[in-house]
Amino acid sequence: MKWKMIRHIAVATRANRARYREMVGDIGLPSLHLATTGALAAFDHVNGSRRQ
Hints:
Layout: H1 2-12, H2 17-27, H3 37-46
């Protein structure tokens, strides 16, 4: 389920990216910005993650 949410934010809702980026920044928790789907795929590969 978590990967579906990340994919939705990263790919499906391009128009809302700036709003989501600001919202995540305001939370104050550590975060990682992956600017492209390729960057997300590379992150998944390096960390042994697998999307469902």
